Amino acid sequence: MFESPSQRASQEQGTGWVYITELDNMSSWLCDGDEASAALHAATASMDTFRGSGMVKRWIHDLATFELEYEAGDSNFSDTLERMVEGRRVRAPVGIAFDSEITARLAVMERLAGLPDNYRCALLLKEGQGLSVERTAKVMEVSPASLRSILYRARRSLRSD
């Protein structure tokens, strides 16, 4: 489904724009595609606050940003990337640092894509939608203790190489 980060990093001028396309593809894959998240559909069916793929796209970007800050410190290009994610026209900078940033963000997305469906759903609802543990557990139809375990394993999986 996703190209490897090393393949994408070799595309110097278009690297930044590829990241935006990948965000769109992944949010559509999670919300609308043939392999859409069954856990997400089931959990959000009763939620009138869930905003679909636009919200998922923003959350994936925020997750990648957080993971990179957690692993590598602040980004020199975060403002440019924020504008790109918001759909505003920017001129993508070219350079090793930018390519490295995009490569690292795509690696986080690939780890997210590799998570079990219920892990992604739990992370999205708890951290992306901002639901409490109790509310997230209720919409996912699991106990709060089970949800805490799912969240722990999901976060650990995202951070491992």
Give an account of the 3D structure.
This protein has 161 residues and is an all-alpha fold. The chain is 70% helix and 0% strand. The radius of gyration is 16 Å and the shape is globular.
| SSE topology string | HHHHHHHHH
Q: Between the first and last Cα atoms, what is the distance in angstroms?
A: 19 Å
Mean pLDDT: 76
Q: In what range is the share of β-strand residues?
A: under 5%
Instruction: Decide which structural class fits the backbone.
Output: mainly alpha
Radius of gyration: 16 Å
Strand tally is: 0
Q: Number of helical segments?
A: 9
Helix content: 55-70%
Low-confidence stretches: 4-13
User: What is the overall shape?
Assistant: globular
Chain-wise SSE layout:
Layout: H1 5-9, H2 15-31, H3 38-44, H4 53-72, H5 78-85, H6 96-114, H7 117-128, H8 133-140, H9 144-159
Helix pairs in contact: 2-4, 2-6, 3-7, 4-6, 7-8, 7-9, 8-9
Summarize the structure.
The chain is built from nine helices and no strands. The protein is globular and about 45 Å long. α3 (38-44) crosses α7 (117-128).
List keywords for this structure.
mainly alpha, globular, 0% strand, single chain, 9 helices, 161 residues
